[in-house]
Amino acid sequence: MGHRSPLARPPRPATRSRRGIVIDQETKAVPGPVVLATDASVGRKHVSIGFLATTGHTGLRAHLYPEHLARPRTRVTVSELRAVHWGLKPVLAARPGSPVEVRVDSLDALGYLRAWQNGGTRMPEGYETGLRSQGRSPSLVQLQMCVEYTPNLTFVHEKAHVGNPLNEAADSLAKLGLRTVRGTVPPDELPRLVPLWAAAALDEYRRTPDGRSIR
Q: Strand locations in the chain, DSSP E?
């Protein structure tokens, strides 16, 4: 039996609330090593994250960002790290002990992830680490513990918009979430669109030997 991450839990079903959008879906997995791509899209008042893994797990989260939780200049980094948090949860629950390569396009986020693997605890400037509603630990505190104590995680930098289907899909999902929470895309469309986009990206990834589009 593989070693299970201390924070791995089954993913929540797709939900929508007055506070934001939450979508967790599954589509057909891609054989081979587990790779997770994540991304974030940040507006003036709203933030959104997207993720897609070769395990078939995909999803997004979009909402108004409480200004007291992070400084404006670190909000992008916080959102990029939250994308890793929400992407890892279903992957680790489904594949405990399996090596997982996590691809991020933010060098700032990558720096925190690698520091946390080595026992660091520093958070982005101004990030509020107090307990959230109902006594929940903040997402990045949970992620820091997960990264430090879960073996077989590798974090790599994937330059944005170079044609990797997984990363392009994560970027598109994050932007889709932002458009939805702003009201330009109907929320009822997301349960249909998210798995379609994910399946298309995974199919393209399967056809390319290094996971990059042929251009």
A: 15-17, 20-26, 34-42, 46-53, 57-64, 100-104, 153-157
Residue partners of 135: CB distance under 8 A and separation at least 6:
none
Q: What is the DSSP letter of 134?
A: G
Quick one: which of 125, 109, 126, 138 has its CA closest to 40?
109
Which 8-state DSSP code applies to residue 51? Answer: E
- Does 18 score more than 90 pLDDT? no
3-state secondary structure (DSSP) of residue 23 = strand
- Segment 127-131 long-range contacts (CB within 8 Å, at least 24 positions apart): 127/69, 127/70, 127/74, 127/78, 128/68, 128/69, 128/70
> HEC states along 62-119?
EEECCHHHCCHHHHHHHHHHHHHHHHHHHHHHHCCCCCEEEEECCHHHHHHHHHHHCC
Question: Among candidates 96, 98, 214, which has minimal Cα distance to 165?
Answer: 214
Residue 58 phi, psi (nearest 5): -150, 160
The pLDDT of 94-107, averaged and rounded, is 96
- The predicted-structure confidence for 137-149, as pLDDT tens digits, reads as follows 999 999 999 999 9
